[in-house]
């Protein structure tokens, strides 16, 4: 019973994280500010995807 509860809690947290990340990516993709390119570059550098 304890392992089932732990599994359900884990699934809940993973689903919450994925949902939050998707919302952030969607907002970023639709961002139209003057500094859009700089925001994208800063994010890429932070992730180590841009040199």
Short description:
By secondary structure, this protein is mainly α.
Question: What does this protein look like?
Answer:
The structure is a single chain. With 51 residues, the protein is mainly alpha-helical. The chain has one domain. The chain is built from two helices and no strands.
What portion of the residues fall into strands of 2 or more residues? under 5%
What letter string, H or E per element, gives the SSE order?
HH
Ranges with pLDDT <50 over ≥5 residues? none
Question: pLDDT average, as an integer?
Answer: 77
Number of H/I helices: 2
| Most strands sheet | none
Cα(first) to Cα(last) distance is 49 Å
Helix proportion range: over 70%
Q: Compute the number of structural domains.
A: 1
Number of strand elements = 0
Broad structural category: mainly alpha
Radius of gyration from the alpha-carbon trace, in angstroms: 17 Å
Globally, the shape reads: elongated
